[in-house]
Amino acid sequence: MAELRFDGRVAIVTGAGGGLGRSHALTLAARGAKVVVNDLGGSAHGDGQSASAADKVVEEIRALGGEAVANYDSVENGQAIVQSALDAFGTVDIVINNAGILRDVSFQKMTQADWDIVQRVHLNGSMSVSHAAWPIMREKGYGRIVMTTSAAGIYGNFGQANYCAAKLGILGLAHCLAEEGRGKNIFVNTIAPIAASRLTETIMPPALLENLKPEAVSPLVAWLCHEECEETKGLFEVGAGFIAKLRWERTAGHAFPLGRAFNMDDVARKWGAVTDFSESTHPTNTNEALAPILSAVSNPSLGGNEFIDLDTATKTE
Ligand code: NAI
């Protein structure tokens, strides 16, 4: 098989001045992509800014014979970052939303400012850069977007309420963009990485960090950005060479008959069926998820209303 390449493709990698973003940028550039290396250059807590982080990675890419330009805007200003891509390379094909900060603190002690800055950088930032690139991708009928969530968001983690909420918000954004982009050949996937970086160096022992190289995350990201990859709406856990896909799982559940009142005692009695995963399903979109409910509601023999049109009931556009 010939090497997969990105010749002629333009990629924006946010937060690419260090850690995972730097590795993604180097990986794409090594395979021929022209890269906008975005980084605000602030601290891990989101304070300050500097051009040096992005500049250093641009130099690294150029030294290896690749093409890259630096951008120092915050991801909250997606328009400026996309403009850098347009000014330098004329278009944008790939957006890797990776920039991030931490303001870890227990919920009890969390301030509104701790909450707001994490939402702004992670959730608003991922939206802002994607939103600025979206019309360009739609127009050309091509786009690849990778979002960065976290195990903390998926599973919950002590002391990270702001981060968990923002990270799962990003997954919700990705799910919607995947649906809206599907018909325009814009594919949107999400990774939950684990890697040694300044965000993890204070919370993991050095021996563990040694084997958690950012370079073990970038091959998946690069594949998800490639034109031959038809995956969309996926969520992947990735780190130290491990790559796996996640999906939703729903129990078979219990349906109380329509038109007959039921109360919390009935719910308590049926709790076993409600929570039993032995005959689970894996809905992948709202139609699949709502189908069992709406088919009962629209079936007169089950006490439903025949006038409900399933198609209209589940379309939200
Ligand atoms: P890092 O701190 O090395 O890299 C993040 C980069 O984003 C930094 O260079 C920083 O300057 C930049 N940045 C921060 N705010 C910015 C803003 N407003 N605009 C532009 N750039 C900004 O950290 P790491 O670990 O490489 O993190 C990358 C992403 O991966 C983050 O979204 C993080 O939440 C996520 N992640 C990382 C994990 C890990 O194990 N390292 C685990 C789960 C998620």
From TrEMBL:
Family to which this protein belongs: Belongs to the short-chain dehydrogenases/reductases (SDR) family.
Principal place of residence: other
Alphabetized GO MF terms: enoyl-CoA hydratase activity; isomerase activity; oxidoreductase activity
Keywords: Fatty acid metabolism, Isomerase, Lipid metabolism, Lyase, Oxidoreductase, Peroxisome
Leader sequence residues: none
GO terms for cellular component: cytoplasm
This protein's record includes keyword NADP: no
Highest taxon listed in the record's lineage: Bacteria
Start and end residues of each Ketoreductase domain: 9-197
The protein's name in its UniProt record: Eukaryotic hydroxysteroid (17-beta) dehydrogenase 4
Keyword Lyase carried by entry: yes
Subcellular location: Peroxisome
GO BP terms, alphabetized: fatty acid beta-oxidation
